[in-house]
Write a structure and sequence with these properties.
Elements (H helix, E strand, L loop, with lengths): L1 E3 L3 E6 L2 E7 L4 E2 L2 E4 L1 E6 L1 H7 L3 E2 L6 H13 L7 E6 L9 H5 L5 E5 L4 E4 L1 H6 L12 E5 L5 E6 L14 H13 L2 E7 L5 H8 L5 E7 L9 E3 L2 E9 L27 H13 L3 E6 L2 H21 L3 E5 L8 H4 L4 E5 L4 H11 L9 H5 L5 E3 L10 H9 L11 H8 L1 H7 L15 E5 L2 E7 L2 E4 L1
Parallel strand pairs: 1-4, 6-13, 7-8, 8-9, 13-14, 14-16, 16-17, 17-18, 18-19, 19-20
Antiparallel strand pairs: 1-2, 2-3, 5-21, 9-10, 10-12, 11-12, 15-16, 21-22, 22-23
Helix pairs in contact: 1-5, 7-8, 13-14
């Protein structure tokens, strides 16, 4: 099969690129690129979000409560109302969801999924009364009677057993949505429950999967390729997220807090060493400046072992970085996984919290370290829209000098993502490499080539 963009043509044989030559031969498209990869996503939860209440862009807690009330009217009494996507500069007040849906348990996830807003009925079902204490790495906000109504970080785990459970169909739905957007690969970053890996292994995958298991869940598993799934990483959380005020910062939030560490740095170092010895790489969530600085210190200690194993470490998010940390990146066996589209909303939080804008989303400065950048969406935190990443990274709203050119954004979704995954035969257009391709017209994906099959949308 020949494909052309009018300037060069590709001959595809099976799942490989057989030839690349100048001139026009075959099916003509505006542009042909290596297959887009989403380098940080949670496809199971994206599939669940596609069947839930989307609160992206709601202006206030009151508007969110109105949406909940409308949804509850169409559901049987006692059934759950679930939603996601809200982002407010401060936590919502208690009582709103109790009045909106008194006969339905309600669970709303914040846009970053680092907090959950619930009503009294949901708290009752989870056994969360005035005497309930949050687990380590979590916190509650309580209503006037002491009942938790806002759950931060690992306090959300108390609710999980009582929610409608995820299913293989949710995973299939999420992965298929990525495929229909022109993606050929997704990096699943270790928030899914361990059984989701078994669901993925049983599916006919519509995309190639790079998979990280949650901390503690990798023991007893062997890294490697299983069909189109690459079991490769272990996910750690150094801190929380900006919207939930749990990103671990040097500059305090308006209330004087500094966020919170989650997996301690000693835990990261010790369990990380074990995982590396077993052949897994490490993918560490770090959003705040303190988290980034701390993880860099651990990675400097673990770098010799990673190099000996031929593994690329991963720093996920890297949203807030002090200038003095930038030289510490250089030379590490490390890929930087960012989600530029988060800046489009987080810019308002940066301003509201009074954080230094020059420390936020340092795209160009991180590019200058020489380390590969890999871009994704963090779906369901944000919709996996390539155009949104392109907009945010090329038109930085806080520091225009940190913007990147469009070709760098594409590189971070293709070759950069492949380098982060450790995939040497992906992400470029060259003979012998994988023929995972995204096809473009009008500046947007209109098709793809995956597993030797041409798909037009």
């Amino acid at each position: 099969m020949w494909l052309t963009d009018g300037k060069q043509s590709l001959l595809l044989e099976g799942e490989r690129i057989a030839r690349v030559e100048e001139g026009a031969r075959g099916l003509r498209l505006e542009a042909i690129t290596p297959g887009l990869q989403d380098a940080h996503a949670h496809p199971l939860y994206w599939g669940m979000a596609l069947r839930g209440l989307d609160l992206t862009g709601v202006a206030s807690p009151e508007e969110a409560a109105e949406r909940v009330a409308a949804a509850a009217r169409g559901l049987p009494p006692g059934s759950w109302v679930e939603g996601r996507g809200f982002l407010f500069p401060k936590p919502p007040p208690p009582g709103l969801l109790d009045r909106a849906a008194p006969g339905h348990p309600v669970c709303l996830r914040s846009r970053d999924h680092h907090s959950a807003w619930i009503n009294r009925l949901a708290a009752q079902q989870a056994g969360l009364g005035p005497g309930a204490e949050p687990p380590e790495g979590g916190a509650f906000l309580r209503d006037p009677e002491g009942v938790p109504y806002y759950l931060l970080e690992r306090a959300q785990e108390a609710l999980e057993p009582h929610l409608p459970p995820p299913s293989p169909e949710d995973l299939r739905r999420g992965l298929q949505d990525f495929a229909q957007r022109g993606y050929t690969a997704v990096h699943a970053l270790g928030y899914e429950p361990p059984e989701a890996l078994d669901w993925a292994l049983a599916l006919e995958l519509p995309v190639r999967l790079w998979w990280a298991l949650p901390r503690g869940a990798w023991r007893g598993r062997r890294p490697g390729w299983y069909g189109d799934l690459h079991l490769a990483g272990v996910k750690f959380f150094a801190d929380g997220a900006l919207g939930s005020r749990t990103a671990w910062m040097h500059t305090p939030y308006p209330d004087g807090s500094l966020g919170m560490p989650l997996d301690g740095l000693e835990v990261l170092k010790e369990e990380g060493k074990e995982a590396l010895k077993a052949g897994f790489t490490l993918a560490v969530h770090a959003i705040g400046t303190r988290a980034v600085a701390g993880v860099l210190g651990v990675f400097q200690e673990l770098a010799p072992l990673a190099r000996a194993k031929g593994l690329t470490l991963r720093l996920e998010h890297v949203q807030h970085v002090r200038k003095e940390e930038l030289p510490r990146f250089q030379g590490l066996p490390l890929a930087l996984s960012l989600q530029p589209l988060h800046l489009l909303l987080d810019q308002h939080l940066v301003r509201a919290y009074g954080f230094p804008p020059e420390e936020a989303f340092r795209f160009r400065s991180l590019w200058a370290t020489g380390l590969p950048l890999a871009f994704g969406s963090d779906a369901p935190v944000a919709k996996p829209e390539y155009a949104e990443n392109l907009l945010a990274a090329t038109q930085h709203p806080l520091c225009p000098e940190e913007s990147l050119p469009p070709e760098a954004v594409l590189w971070a979704h293709t070759e950069g993502a492949a380098r982060a995954a450790g995939w040497g035969d992906y992400g470029r257009l060259a003979p012998g490499l994988r023929a995972d391709l995204t096809l473009w017209e009008g500046g947007r994906p209109v098709g793809r080539v995956y597993r030797g099959r041409l798909e037009l949308f």
